[in-house]
Every structure is written in structure tokens, then in C-alpha cells.
Amino acid sequence: MVVGGGAAIIVKSDKTEVREYLLGRLAEADEEQFELRLLSDSEFAEEFDIVVDEITDEYLQNDLPADERERVEKYFLSSNERQVKLQFAAELLRRAKSRPVPRPGFFEQIAAFWRQQSYARVALVAAAVIIVAGIIILWPKSTTTYLAVNLTISTAERAEGPAIQHVKPPPNAGLKITLTIPENARGAKGYVVKLVGGSDLTIEQQTPEAVVVTIAPGSITPGTYAIQLSKIKPDNTRERIPGSYYFAVE
């Protein structure tokens, strides 16, 4: 709020203004000024892209009140680009929910068995585990292989559709993905990488221009995926970098 001459003037944040524009709540004169600023202010355009992503996510997750959901369908989705983005995000979410739950590993199954057995049986199992562990230690270890993939960020809002890179990893191979950091997002305190519909990915390597993450063999099935990149601000909060890195596993 800005106070001057005894009058109080409420100043909307950029994010609030963008949201009201996308939901058709701005007056016609304000819309004209908004669109002029969108064309001339790159930082404001980035804020616009972030709010588009947020509204898309909220719509898909059913996190919007009824009146805003109606406005999304009437105003927000009047853009063909945003319709394509919504369909793409919905497909990613569907694939994420339909992925099979990984089976417990060998040692996890032994631990579960251990908890359920009597002490006599536990002793026998313990001896067996020691033997198996010795075999594993002495057995020649195989090296995990990774297919190298280089991805650049894509903003579907300002294009015909997201640029998707198709990859076909060899059998039993993982992915080693290099994400080029947009120039205007470089120099941050740190970065967070998230697989849409999944969890954060561990950054294996970082340079001023890129971050490198790996996805273990067997972790993903054929389909289309998106990765989101956030930068860590000096106060340790996250800030989404507009756009996503898209790839399809064949």
C-alpha cells in the first residue's frame, strides 16, 4: 500500500496482476497497458510464464475454487498454446500416476523376512546372508552405463509447442542429463532439479553454465517427461525458472 496526500492506493504485485489478466478480471484499459508491458519487460514476461505454469498445475490438481476454475475454462484456456500446455501436463501427470511401484530390493526383502521370523530361524538366515554377502563382494562388479543427453529449456507459452528431445537408452542403461542454465538464471546460490510427477533429482555436477543429473537404469519407462529447474535465492527460498526441459524415452 502506498500512502500520499491522505489517500491510500493499493498497488498490486506483478503476480496478482498477471493472475487477474489470465482469469479475465482486468478492465479493458488495464489489459492494453498489461499487454504493452508484457512485450517490453522481459522480467515481467518471465513472471507471466511462471503464473501460467502455476494456474495449469492448480487446475490439474483441482486446487482452484469453483469460480476460478470456471474462469480458467472461459478465459485462460482461450489460448491455443495454453490448451496444448494443459494437455501435455495432463499426460505427464497421468503417466506419473500410472507408473508401477518399484519392487523391494534384495536386502529389503531379507530385512522384512528377518523381522517376521523366530530367533532360531534368524540365526540360519544370518548365516545365509553372510555367505551371500561374501559371494557378492567377490563377484566381479559391473559398471552402470549412462546415455548422455543435453537439454535446453523450452517455454511452450511462446511457441507452437514444447521442444521434445527423443532418447533411446541401451538396455540396462540410465540417463546422464546435462541441463543448460538460461543466461538470466546463472550465478545463483544453487539449483534444485525436479522431475515433473516425481521427486527432486540429485545434482551430480554443476558448472556456471549447466547442471548434470543422472537417472538410474530402470527408473523410468518409455514416455514423455519434463524437468523443472529452480534457483536457490540468497535467503534459501526457491524460485522457479520459467519453462521446462522436455524429453521422451523410446
What does this structure look like?
- There is one protein chain.
- The chain has helices at residues 14-22, 28-40, 42-60, 66-74, 80-98, 106-116, 119-138; strands at residues 2-4, 7-9, 145-151, 164-167, 173-180, 190-195, 200-201, 203-206, 210-215, 223-232, 238-240, 245-249.
- The protein has 250 residues and is of the alpha+beta class.
- The protein folds into three domains: 2-78, no CATH class; 106-138; 145-249, Sandwich (Immunoglobulin-like), CATH 2.60.40.
- Strands 4, 6, 7, 10, 11 and 12 form a six-stranded mixed sheet that branches. A four-stranded mixed sheet has the order 3-5-9-8, with no helix packed on it.
- Strand 6 (190-195) and strand 7 form a beta hairpin.
- Helix 1 (14-22) packs across helix 3 (42-60), helix 2 (28-40) crosses helix 3 and helix 3 crosses helix 5 (80-98).
- 14% of the residues are buried.
Summed over residues and divided by their number, the pLDDT gives a mean of: 79
Strand content: 15-25%
Q: Name the structural class.
A: alpha+beta
Which architecture of the largest domain per CATH?
A: Sandwich
- Broad CATH class of the largest domain: Mainly Beta
Question: What is the count of DSSP helices, taking H or I runs of 4+ residues?
Answer: 7
How many strands, which pairing sense, and closed or not: the largest β-sheet?
Answer: 6 strands, mixed
Q: Compute the number of strand runs.
A: 12
Segments where pLDDT lies below 50 for 5+ residues?
Answer: 1-11
Task: Examine the coordinates and then state which fold CATH places here, giving the name of the CATH topology of the largest domain.
Answer: Immunoglobulin-like
Give the N-to-C terminal Cα separation: 53 Å
Order of helices and strands: EEHHHHHHHEEEEEEEEEE
Helix content: 40-55%
Please, how many domains? 3
**What general form does the structure show?**
elongated
Rounded to the nearest angstrom, the radius of gyration is 24 Å
